[in-house]
Amino acid sequence: MIDPAKFVAESVARLSAEVPGRAIVAASGGIDSTVAALLIERALGERARAIFVDTGLLRAGEVERVRAFFRDSGLHFEVVPAADRFLAALAGVDDPEEKRRRIGTAFVRLFEEEAAKFGADSLVQGTIAPDWIESGGALRDTIKTHHNVGGIPADFRLRLVEPLRDLYKDEVRALAHHLGIPEAERQPFPGPGLAVRVTGPVTPERVRRARVANAIVEEEIERAVAAGEIARPWQYFAVLLPVRTVGVLGDNRVHGEAVSVRVVESIDAMTATAMALPRLLLARIAERVTRELSGQVVRVLYDVTDKPPATIEWE
User: Fold this and answer.
1) What is the C-alpha to C-alpha distance for residues 27 and 163, in angstroms, rounded to an integer?
2) What are the backbone dihedrals phi and psi of residue 128, each rounded to the nearest 5 degrees, phi first?
3) Strands in 196-307 per DSSP E
């Protein structure tokens, strides 16, 4: 485990020397990129600019939450709306690896444009060790391509700066606590957003369904934690599945999609254990999902697979 105070001091000194010009930060609103953003801001001051991209693939209320989170963290930032760009890039794509590559490329091109406006020549990312380990390379198999690693095109025009590259999730959370970042235990959210929780084709309507289901899972899990029914999980979310399944609405047969609920315990995200949830909690989630997405989602499943053999996210 790292010494947070020592790591921060050494990182700020190193970044000050390594980045003589201006830099922009890919700030997703997660803990990793927020820690990276605060480190570079301490090192560069006004020569650093954090950018949060509204991809149209975010959770319900995410933009407003991230705005408040960054303000509470003391981070200077800008929100860039780009939903049309990302949804267009994903049109007609259902292969998970291609989704991640396209999302990575869309991010990079947007950051290049924003860097040109700001006069920056460096891009700071919150890449951590599991990102590049799972993305493969050298003698490592590709588990899944992380958009911030394998999604970067060969003609990338900025210098990449990754101050957290050799750290694991638990170490980054220790840094977050040291830096006074609120919600340091907030569950991870994938950089590609709901695109990797909408298995199969990504459309605005399917993203909307995944967003509603995901919000229900988060609300019910957090309510159960607050009530002392369960311990706080590492990660908890819903995945929209590309299957057509039969359901009943009133006296009529309907066909809708299915949702899988994923709740896991972990320390560093390299391994994870599927959490055993109370039957009544699962029933509440299933009832709300099928009611609030009536006729659209007619079946709710619970994923009991550990990592390995599965990954935490489905795609």
Assistant:
1) 13
2) -120, 175
3) 235-249, 252-265, 273-274, 297-302
Tokens for 115?
A: 């860097």
Going by the DSSP 8-state scheme, the letter that residue 256 receives in this structure is E
Within the chain, all domains assigned CATH 3.40.50.620 are found at: 4-179
CATH match of 197-302 with 3.40.720.10: no
What are φ and ψ of residue 161, in 5° steps? -120, 125
Of 210, 192, 227, 235, nearest to 104 (Cα)? Answer: 192
d(CA 25, CA 49): 6
> Regarding beta strands 22-26 and 120-124, do their DSSP bridges make them parallel or antiparallel, or are they unpaired?
parallel
Task: Answer whether CATH 3.40.50.620 is correct for domain 4-179.
Answer: yes
Task: Give the tokens for residue 189.
Answer: 């959210």
Q: Look at residues 39, 45, 41 and name the one whose alpha carbon lies nearest to residue 7.
A: 39
Please give the chain's pLDDT, 315 residues, in tens: 789 999 999 999 999 999 999 999 999 888 899 999 999 999 999 999 999 999 999 999 999 988 988 888 778 899 999 999 999 999 999 999 899 889 989 999 999 999 999 999 999 999 998 886 765 444 435 444 454 555 677 888 899 999 999 999 889 999 999 998 877 667 888 889 999 999 999 999 999 999 999 999 999 999 999 999 999 999 999 999 999 999 988 888 989 999 999 999 998 888 999 999 999 999 999 999 999 999 999 999 999 999 999 999 999
Q: Do 30 and 148 touch, CB atoms closer than 8 A?
A: no
DSSP reduced 3-state for 153: coil
Q: How far is CA 209 from the centre of its chain?
A: 18
